[in-house]
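Hey,
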Amino acid sequence: MTTSPVERAADQFVTALAQWRAERGMTKKQLAARMGFDPSYVSHVEGRRHKPTEDFARRAEAVLSAGGAIWQRFQEYDELRHARGAAAHRDPPVPAQWMPPGTGLIVEKEIAELRYVDGSYRCRIHRSLYNAGNEPVTRFLMKISVDRYPHDPTGSNRHHRQHPLTWEELDIEANSGEGEAAEPMQQRLKLDRDASKEVWLLFGNEHGQFPLYPGERTTISYAYTVGEEKWGQWFQRAVRLPTRSLTVRLDFPVHFEPQVWGVETSMAAEVPVRTPLERHNDDDRAIFEWSTDQPLLNARYRLEWRFRGAGAPTYEDLAPINGQAVALTHSEPRASQKMRGVGIVQRGADLLRQRSRHFQLPREEESAREAVTSLLTALQRLETLHDFSKGVGLAAPQIGLSVAAAVVRPPEYDVEPVVLLNPRMVGESGDTDEQYEGCLSFFDYRGLVVRPLRIEVEHARFDGTRVITSFELAMARLVSHEIDHLEGKLYVDRMAPDAALVPVSEYQQIGRPWAY
């Protein structure tokens, strides 16, 4: 029986390891072989006969490509283990991220810069490469992707069909090596679409070939240009190769009065970047820089911004209204930006489309209480940003937790929030009504949704006993909305196909409760 936080953290590490091993379709023996361990070693760790080490966790993360989930669980376990006292044994430090045998290219350092000049963005990527594989490398894949309206895929696709990327405007240049030794790299087309291009950069040109052989290092740099009418206010780096160091730099005119923030997205959650951005001014330019060492494989790091100064380019969101794209220009921070700023996961994140894991109660009572405490704390922060006169709910996936927990505060401010653990609808009335709803993960718009006027919900207490509670009118709508979140649904999924999303600036019922 689990008796301490350390043992519970070890259980969570083992659970994550087993889940990702099953997800990748690997046996314990196969995983051990890929990691370079004795065939029985993984079995011993999963059976809790061996304690996980940092080296083991790094190798498992690398082989299973778990998006940081395994490594995060190990760090939580390791912190608790060492917090027990000075007598706790600490493993010798692992000097570098372990790579599976046969790993090909490693990015030892990447510097990605985006600079705004005269109505266009010039993107320049500089990578220091090391060939850790067994074969010479003869090409490198360059990917260019733009998304003018990232929170409206339909509108963005329509915009890029009308305004596609062109090879002339991209003006791609690519080189291998530095200084006088730099060689231009030939380009070979791989993919040509309206909003994305893929090009093989070849280690060769008309003067000859210069492959990157095993054990050798080189640097490559490439650059391209995209007009401001095609570039949304974000710049993302996806870690597709093992990477030692990543730096992202934004360069804007000072008079634009730029405001910049960062988001980290893994397969488990979307959260603010873990270290702050640094800013300095260079004459009339505002330079923002963010760096991280050992970024997780498959993670994505995205910097977003808004311009507040006169003369700066404006950015618009598109809302599909009766099948047409309606533009909404923002001079103040968008509601969704405020929500993201306090840690609310936004629409588009994979986590919001996944069914949440139910707690095993009472065994996971402490984990359930921790999740509810996090939700209530987040709810308090939210109520400083907005007047939730209709009431407000918050589900665990919206704060990056894939567990079946939610809290709902009724429209009456003096009433304690309702806590829902492992909830499921077991009954509903035939009487329904249609009201506008908003969502903290999609807060720039409102949409009409039909819901029952009364529901019955079975849910759990912390001790594992289950109860059935009836909710009516506003609470029925709020609770239904949060249960949808725990099942991977958003309110837009329940809207009529021809229903219109209304921009929050045009919504006339802010500050008013629903009418019944």
